[in-house]
Amino acid sequence: MRAVRLPCLSAWFVTGEEAISRQYELRRGDQVSGPWMSDQVKAMALEGKLLPDDLIRVVGTDQWATVASVPSLRVAPAGSQGLGEQAPAEAPPAEAEAQNDDSIAGASGVALQIVGVLFIALGLGDIALYNFEVWDFYAGMGIAGTAIEPYTGAVALGVGVLLMALGKRSLHVPDAVRWVSASVGMLALLFVGIMQVPGVASGSAAERLVRGGSLHMCPNHTVDALVNSFVGDPQWESIIADDGNTYVNMMGEITVDLVPARMLLQFNVDGDEFGLQAIEVDGEAWTLFDGVAVLEKMCDEIGDY
Fold it and tell me: In the chain, at which end, N or C, are there fewer CB atoms within 10 A of the end residue's CB?
């Protein structure tokens, strides 16, 4: 249906005393609503409930005109609101600013930023020192020698970035959650730090000595590198035996005559020196001569010795 534009629509859309008795109907497509008083129509226009292409007429007449043609009605641009629906309210300036606020969220945010930076420093240090076989932060903690070990640095970096993000206002994280996250992160860092003290983790210093040391037959590579090139899923542990001696055990998967087997290498640690103590394959003890042959085979596998 095409709208018929009246020559002087403002003349019949009135306010004041005459508006008390005059009523209007509104139309959008096939939907007709009303009757409405003039003040009600103006209020709907101001609230964004009317669109420029909506039609309006005086009750009892047949002539429709577009709302946009009525000078005293200010309507919002055409949108998707239904006839009489409330237009979405704009966010208050303060709220909109808070949604985009990327600043640090108070004391809890500062705490998270500090803990996050420490985790990032741990991750970077772990990646550098582990790759250069200088230090393993997680030796003696049940992580060394597992499939997780090569990725601990990346995990620490990821945790650090996450904690720093949680400290920003823009994420709208509850303050209690920030404090709990900061506390848990700090406790984790404290635990890792304590485990670096020699003797705190049982035999951890001995494990580092063996894994970071080298053999006379293969001086250019650490024992850890030899094992990783030859043994599948290597797992390390250090123990203090009843005789008071410290031993470092390496357990992992090998192949003997094309048959999978599990090997145990045991090293005896004496001060800052270590040596092969025993070797077992599938629970069967081999001679030290066999153990030396296995170590030589490791050197051959890694090459450049």
Answer: N
Domain shared by 208 and 282, yes or no:
yes
- Those residues whose C-beta lies under 8 Å from the C-beta of residue 172, and which sit 6 or more positions away, are none
pTM for the whole structure: 0.41
Structural domain count, the chain: 3
Cα–Cα dist 272/246, whole Å? 12
Q: Final residue of a domain: which of 87, 115, 136?
A: 87
Lowest mean pLDDT among 27-31, 46-50, 88-92, 273-277: 88-92
Residues 6+ apart with CB under 8 A from 239: 202, 203, 246, 247, 248, 249
> Residue 275 sits in which domain range?
204-302
* Region for 215 from its dihedrals, namely left if φ exceeds 0, alpha if ψ lies in -120 to 50, beta otherwise: beta
Residue identified by tokens 């024992």 is: 223
Determine how β-strand 246-256 pairs with β-strand 259-270: antiparallel
